[in-house]
Amino acid sequence: MSESTGRTALLLLAYGTPETPERVAEYFTHIRGGRPPSAEAVAHLRHRYEAVGGRTPLTALTEAVRDGVARGLAGRGHDVPVYVGMKHWEPWIADVVKRMADDGVTRVVCVVLAPHYSRFSVGGYQRYLFEGMHRHGVTFDVDFVEQWHDDPGFVEVAAALVREELAHWPEEKRDGVTVIFSAHSLPERIRTWNDPYEAQLETSARLVAERAGLAGYRRAWQSAGNTGEPWIGPDILDFLPRLAEEGVTDVLQCPVGFVCDHLEILYDLDIEARHKAEELGIAYRRTRLPNARPDFVAALTNICERAVRRENTVRVDAPPPTTRRRDELAEGASPIHAEPARDPRATAEGGARPAGAAH
User: Fold this and answer.
1) Which CATH number is 152-286 given?
2) pLDDT digits (tens, 9 = 90+) for 179-236
3) Are 3-149+294-348 and 152-286 the same fold in CATH?
4) Could you tell me which residues are beta bridge partners of residue 143?
5) Which residue among 19, 205, 217, 236 is least enclosed by CB atoms within 10 Å?
6) ω into 91 cis (within 30 of 0)
7) The model's pTM
8) Is residue 146 helix, strand or coil?
9) CA dihedral 160, 162, 168, 173 (to 10 degrees)
10) Which class in CATH covers the domain with range 3-149+294-348?
11) Distance separating the N- and C-terminal Cα atoms of the chain
12) Residue 245: CB atoms within 10 Å
């Protein structure tokens, strides 16, 4: 369909989160492509949600960001409706596809609320979008902002968050604080795909450090899944003891791969990493997340406006190859992850996203 015969819409995409601990099993099953997890795994994930109050604010914060971006675009003269779609929870991406079609949308501009590209993350959203289009017999022109890790507005927000948190240390101690930039770990096999995820994270860390005026920084990973395969490291829980051995006494962690409070932040960092640091005698803080801060919403609005104008998007006519492993497909993982591979390496690729992942 041509944009001239219909309407352009903006679709903000996020991971999703269950609204109550009682629905964790349903959520986890969807993450696993329809394969029910063990009762032990469900209990473990449910405990994590209960430890942070039973739910995370991801849904409410995403809606607040949507409202802010919609106001910003309207204020600049853009008649573009803004929708939210979740990969693993309500509002399901497939349901939003039908809503957009019913509203007369013919071109969809997609922005994932995660700055860095990986076939595991952004590619997954693309697969769910096309599955929803197929389910409802809908055809959109699809433009994706596949990454915005080096966007100046995003970098400035992240740098401001670093400066704000460093201010909690006495001025004479700030130069001695070790700043660690982190992101969600992914299986090491992404390196066989020439996936840009790691390089983009390093670029973000460097740019934010420069903007924040840091003399140096370190990088670590977090929230790796338990899938029986190697994940990128070092994990922050393993990295903190190494820093203690080096004599580090003050740590500020900046989870630059995340933009919204979710389980990886509220549990993995605020509970697990903080507890590990306390055991080691390290003074530990983390930066706040952009969430729905006005400066972040303004930066995202700029990104979205450029996308509406086709200045920072790529046209997507088909989803990328599956990231599921053969054993997962054999166990009945959702066909959504089993589109025909477009390169020979894809036949062996896969692995469920870890429970609660924010991307």
Assistant:
1) 3.40.50.1400
2) 999 999 999 999 999 999 999 999 999 999 999 999 999 999 999 988 889 999 999 9
3) yes
4) 109, 315
5) 19
6) yes
7) 0.90
8) coil
9) -120
10) alpha beta
11) 30
12) 9
